[in-house]
Design brief:
Layout (H helix, E strand, L loop, with lengths): L19 H13 L14 H22 L4 H19 L6 H13 L4 H15 L6 H11 L1 H11 L4 H21 L1 H6 L7 H6 L4 H5 L5 H21 L8 H23 L13 H16 L12 H5 L2
Helix pairs in contact: 1-2, 1-4, 2-3, 2-4, 2-5, 2-7, 3-4, 3-5, 5-6, 5-7, 6-8, 7-8, 8-12, 8-13, 12-13, 13-14
Length: 317
């Protein structure tokens, strides 16, 4: 199948079978030209890891755009199938698409299993056929495939493979996904999707029709306050992860949580009206969050995070 050239991410895509250096240049460009709340990597991430973060990001960005930026669900599903075929070609030692040419080196160096990459595609396929979620547990089930694999990929890059850190990462990534849902209510409505659990709507006297018609009133404020509070609790459960990695990684790991908490604060700052506008993190807010993460790094135990680190990652240091 031919790559969807109409997507913005395909604008500078090199031809199939490009040299690894050319492919790496493309993933680096893609990671630096994005619309997320925070940078893919900060200045504090060790230089030896930056290209690998770009490569993983490029995979996730392509998968996400194939699911979100292709308006026809049938075509989106076909393209996601194609993307999984390209993934399996990469793991078979025959990468063709530039993203996989670059990613192949990352997979090989860090011995990353295929499962987190493939799990992401489960969520993006789900988006094509499931547009409502009955209960909180259903939304969390979606997050297990849409968000948690990303955190586990980050841990592999950082040299960690243990269940304890993976659980802390899952809390953080689930909370990030939830914060994004509450931030993007209006944007998701344009795609016909509502991620707010229907039982949460009913609890506050709201219906699906109220959301579709974007009725903002005290009931919606109460709903958002409830969702923000629950999400903040999940962030708190994952915050100890930053103290379970080495100091050189701590700022970037903590920024994931700090940035997500900043999104929740931005929702509060606009009076919870995410039906009418999308709250964003201003540059000053991002700098403030960075400052908090730096202070946390300065006062953390120096030896934290060195235990349980994979020997493979030490060899790449």
């Amino acid at each position: 199948m031919q790559a969807p050239i109409e997507l913005e991410i395909a604008r500078k895509l090199p031809p199939a079978g490009s040299a690894p250096a050319v492919a790496a240049q493309y993933t680096r460009w893609l990671a630096r030209h994005h619309y997320e709340n925070f940078n893919v990597v900060s200045w504090f991430l060790p230089r030896r890891l930056r290209q690998h973060f770009y490569n993983v990001y490029a995979y996730c960005r392509w998968a996400d755009d194939l699911g979100d930026e292709v308006p026809d669900p049938a075509r989106a599903l076909a393209l996601l199938d194609w993307w999984e075929e390209e993934l399996r070609r990469c793991y078979a030692g025959r990468p063709a698409h530039a993203v996989f040419v670059a990613l192949a080196d990352t997979v090989r160096q860090f011995q990353i299993p295929i499962e987190p990459f493939a799990d992401l595609l489960i969520a993006f396929r789900q988006d094509q056929v499931v547009h409502r979620y009955a209960a909180w547990a259903d939304v969390l089930g979606y997050c297990r495939n849409s968000a948690n694999p990303v955190g586990r990929l980050v841990l592999y890059l950082c040299g960690y493979r243990d269940p304890e850190r993976q659980q802390l990462s899952d809390y953080t990534c689930t909370a990030l996904q939830l914060a994004n849902f509450w931030q993007d209510v209006a944007r998701d409505l344009q795609r016909g999707r509502i991620y707010i659990p229907l039982d949460a709507l009913a609890k506050h006297g709201l219906s699906e029709a109220d959301i579709l018609e974007q009725r903002f009133d005290a009931r919606y404020v109460a709903l958002m306050k409830d969702l923000v509070a629950r999400t903040r609790e999940i962030f708190a459960a994952g915050l100890p992860l930053a103290l379970r990695v080495t100091p050189e990684l701590r700022v970037d790991i903590e920024l994931f949580s700090r940035g997500g908490l900043g999104v929740l604060e931005a929702i509060e700052a606009i009076g919870y009206n995410t039906l009418a506008r999308r709250p964003v993190l201003r540059r000053w807010t991002q700098l403030r969050l960075l400052g908090r993460a730096l202070v946390s790094r300065m006062f953390a135990p120096l030896g934290a995070g060195k235990e349980d680190r994979a020997p493979l990652a030490r060899g790449n240091a």
